[in-house]
Amino acid sequence: MLRSNRIWVGLHRVSSFACFAAFLLLLSIGCDSPSKAPTADKGAAAREKTAPPNTTTPDPSEQAPAVVKEAPTESSPQSAAAVAGNGGGVKVSGRVVLQGTPPVRRLVNTTKDAMCAGLHADKKLLDEDLLVSSSGGVKNAFVRVHRGAPKQDYPLPEKPAVLNQQGCMFHPRVLGVRVGQRLLIDNGDPMTHNVRTFTTANAPFNFGQPPDSAPRERVFDRAEREIEVACDFHPWMHAYVFVMEHPFFSVSADDGAYVIDGLPPGEYLLETWHEKLGKQRKTVTVGGEDLVDVNFSLAR
After folding, report:
1. Going by C-beta distance under 8 Å and a sequence separation of 6 or more, which residues neighbour residue 280?
2. What is the rounded CA–CA span in Å between residue 93 and residue 261?
3. For the chain, which terminus, N or C, has the lower number of CB atoms within 10 Å?
4. pLDDT of 11 higher than 60
5. Cβ neighbourhood burial of 93 (10 Å; 0-12, 13-18, 19+)
């Protein structure tokens, strides 16, 4: 009896030890699971480092220059001469003449501005709205291709167009600029001028320009014909600016001569405009020849 009790006690101790060992094993497993969490966090951190960058749309000012559309320059591959396909293209030239006797030029009254009057003390200032040479040539007529110019981008001139104020007059009185070309407006007089434009397609501008001030720069965004430029301080001052999409235009010289160069073969509608004599249009066909003469005769 005593022996059996001892055996039972031994078995009880062994069972208790086994249970205790199993308990310790379970406890160790339960304690290990939290310790594995940092390993998962390290993996997540690694994945975050290799994740693709944020795809949020960047500020347009920070985008690559490759997406910016630049204005054409002289280095552009296409030009009027290149389109012609025969070197410099065809030259259209001629004269703008007046029918009849030219009018007597009017004397400009500068007495309201003593400084303007002083500039013309030796030689009176005459109006420039209609200048005709001894041979009948009309100066400051604007001649352009009104219809037929190829639809394409033409290189812009590197040099800006210039409109100056000298001797209380605008110079030149008529000029052509390209859409997007720089226009510099300067004041070479010892008095302040005001420069105002009367536009329909472009934004107008109106600013004062004191003597010895830096030239003011403007750019026209759209094609437009005969934009009048005036000075509010000196009402006799006028100029006219044509804004062109192509380079096929010219302003007649003192003798009425004009030249439009680089035209590709084709049919064109030419137009001449003068502030006092109005408009006239002619159709011309340009072929393989090097020179085409087209003359305009305007009446008052």
Report:
1. 271, 272, 296, 297, 298
2. 8
3. N
4. no
5. middle
* Whether residue 213 sits in one domain with residue 292: yes
- Strand, coil or helix: what is 77? coil
For position 110, what pLDDT does the model report? Answer: 93
Is residue 99 in a domain? yes
Mean pLDDT score, 208-223:
97
Contacts of 261 (CB under 8 A, 6+ apart): 80, 88, 89, 91, 92
Q: Is residue 195 part of a domain?
A: yes
Find out whether 255 and 133 touch, Cβ atoms under 8 Å. yes
pLDDT digits (tens, 9 = 90+) for 136-183: 999 999 999 999 999 999 999 999 999 999 999 999 999 999 999 999
Please give the tally of structural domains in the chain. Answer: 2
Residue 144 and residue 225: Cα distance in Å, rounded? 10
The answer on 174 and 281 residing in a single domain is yes
Please give the Cα distance from 121 to 224 (Å, whole number): 38
Cβ partners under 8 Å of residue 240, min gap 6: 142, 173, 174, 175, 226, 227, 228, 229, 275
In a domain, 175, yes or no: yes
Q: Which residues pair with 243 in a beta bridge?
A: 177, 224
Indicate whether 52 belongs to any domain: no
Range of the domain at 236: 80-299
Backbone angles phi, psi at 50, to 5 degrees: -95, 0
Question: Do 115 and 238 lie in a common domain?
Answer: yes
> Does the structure show a pLDDT above 80 at 291?
yes
Q: Examine the domain organization and report whether 196 and 277 are in the same domain.
A: yes
Q: State the DSSP string of 28-61.
A: HHHHHHHHTHHHHHHHHHHHHHHSPPP-PPPPGG
Percent of the chain with pLDDT over 70: 71
